[in-house]
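Morning!

This is the sequence you dropped in the shared folder:
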Amino acid sequence: AMNEILNETFEEEVLRILSPKIKSVLKQTSIQYRDDLEQELKLLILTKINNGFNEIKSFFDLMAEQQYSN
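The structure's back. Tokens below.
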């Protein structure tokens, strides 16, 4: 439960930090599409945060791979 709270806080902070850049990019889009595109961008960012960190191997995983490859 604590891990979920930390993850949500982290996600909110990332979106807060990226918000000015998202708004800036959205100005290049027609007004009628901005809300939808903003939601899509945020969803992609959150998906990458959640999936991206799962793809990162730990130090011990890398060491085990190295050991088995020799």
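Headline: The radius of gyration is 18 Å.

More detail when I'm at my desk.
O.
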